[in-house]
Amino acid sequence: MFDQLSERLQKVVKYLKGEVQVTEKNMAEALRMLRMAFLEADVNYKVVKDFEARIKEKALHREVLESLTPAQQVIKIVRDEMTEILGGTDKPLQFAPAPPSIFMMVGLQGSGKTTTTGKLARWALSKGRHPLLVSFDLKRPAAQDQLRSIAGALRLPFYAMTAEKMARPEEALRELIRETKDRGHDLLLVDTAGRLHVDDELMDELKLVKTILDPIETIYVGDAMTGQDAVKSAQAFAERIGISSIILTKLDGDARGGAALSVVMVTGRPIKFVGVGEKPDQLEVFHPDRMASRILGLGDMLGLIEKAEDAADLKEAEEMARKLRKAEFNLDDFRKQLGQLKKMGSLSGLLSHLPGTGPFKKLAAADVDDGKLLHFEAIIGSMTAAERDNPRIIDGSRRRRIAAGSGRPVHEVNQLLKQFQEMQRMMKGGAFKKMLGRMG
Ligand SMILES: Nc1nc2c(ncn2[C@@H]2O[C@H](COP(=O)(O)OP(=O)(O)O)[C@@H](O)[C@H]2O)c(=O)[nH]1
Ligand SMILES: [Mg+2]
C-alpha cells in the first residue's frame, strides 16, 4: 500500500532528521522533495499546492515543542498536514437514531461496490448489528447472484429485488423498508448498479432511489488503483447524487496513493474504510492520523511526537500523583480526573493493569461512561469551593441544593460522593502507597 509514495516521503523524513537546524535552504529542499513525491504519486495538483503552502507557513511560525529538534518539528508539521489531507480526525459511519439505518453504496462498475457491501455487512455484524442486504443492480442477473452468495456466506438474509417490482419504484422501496423493519433488521445495505463511466441515466436512477430511501449514509466506493479518475468520479457522484462517505478499495494494489491523498480535499467527504484485498475480512477502518504516520514511516518518531504533545498532560499527572501521595485529593481533583478519563483512560483503569492492584479492580469496574461523566461534572460544578475542598460538610440539605442546581437527582449526588470517598479511602490505605512506591 502506497509503497512508492512512502519510500519517497521517507527520504524527506531522513533528510530532515539529518539536519540539526532548519534553514531557508534545507527547508526549500525538503519542500521540493515533498512536492515531487506528491506529484509522482498522482496527487491532485491543487491539493499539492495547498499542502506546500501550509507546510511553509507553519514551519515559519512553528510553536516550539521542547524535546523535539527543529527538524523533528518540521516532520511533525508534515505529519499533521498529511493527516488533514486524509481527513483529520476519525469520522465513524453514522447510524439512524430510529432503525433501520440505510446505507446506499454508489460508484462505477468494477469499483468494488458489491464486494464492499459484503465486507461492510460483516463489519456491522461484528458490531452487533443485524443487516439485510439488497441489490439494485437489476440489469445484470449475475449481480443479484453475487450479492446473494456473499450474504449466504455470512449467513445473512438477502432481499430479492426485481425489475418488475421496480417498475413502480416508490411502492417497491416502501415495501423493502417495511420488510426490513418487520424482519427486525436495524441496518439495510443497498448495493446499486454501476457503469463504466458516469452517465445521466444511471445518475437519475440513483437519485430517485436515494430520494425514496433517504439513506443516512450514501457511500461512494472508489477504486484507488484508478488514481485521479476515482477522484473525478467521486466528485461527479458528490455533485449529482450527494455522498456522505467514501470507501476506497484495492489499496493493496495501489503503490502511489494519489486517490487517497486527493479525494477528501476534492469532495469534502471523509474516507471511512479502505479495502485491502478481495476477501470479506480485508476491510480496514480508516484512521487519517495513523495512515499519515504509516505513509511517512514514522513508527519510531510517533512516540516522540506524542510525548511532546502529552508533556502538559504529564505535568498535570505528576501533580496529581503528588497529591495522591499526600492524600490532599479533593473534589476539584476528582473533577480533573473525570475530564481526563476520556483522554487517557481512568486512573483506576490504569491501576487495574498493574500487578498487585487487586483491591483497585472494583474501582475500575465502577468507571463512568460519557453521559455520566457530564452529569458528574455538572454536579461538581454546582458545589461551592468550600464543598469541593471539603466534601464532608455536604449534608442532606446541601445535597438537595446541589441536585437542584445541577438538574440531577439526589441519588446521583450521593453516588458521586460515594465514589469519591471510596477513591479517597483507598488512597489513604497502605496498599496504595506501597504501590505508588513501586511505581517510583
Ligand atoms: N485486490 C482487491 N480487489 C478488490 C477489492 N475490492 C474489490 N475487489 C475486486 O474488484 C472486482 C470488482 O468488485 P465488485 O464488488 O464486483 O465491483 P462492483 O462492480 O462495483 O460491484 C472483484 O474482482 C473484486 O474481488 C480490494 O479491496 N482489493
Ligand atoms: Mg456490483
Provide a descriptive summary of the structure in words.
The chain is of the alpha/beta class and 440 residues long. The protein has 3 domains: 83 residues, SRP54, nucleotide-binding domain (Four Helix Bundle (Hemerythrin (Met), subunit A), Up-down Bundle), CATH 1.20.120; 186 residues, Rossmann fold (3-Layer(aba) Sandwich), CATH 3.40.50.300; 113 residues, 434 Repressor (Amino-terminal Domain) (Orthogonal Bundle). 60% of the residues lie in helices and 9% in strands. It is built from 21 helices and 8 strands. An 8-stranded mixed beta sheet has the order 3-2-4-1-5-6-7-8, with helices on both faces. Strand 2, helix 6 and strand 3 form a beta-alpha-beta unit. Helix 2 runs antiparallel to helix 3 and helix 17 packs across helix 19. The longest helix has 28 residues. The chain is flat and about 75 Å long. The chain starts with a helix and ends with a helix. Bound molecules: guanosine-5'-diphosphate and magnesium ion (MG).
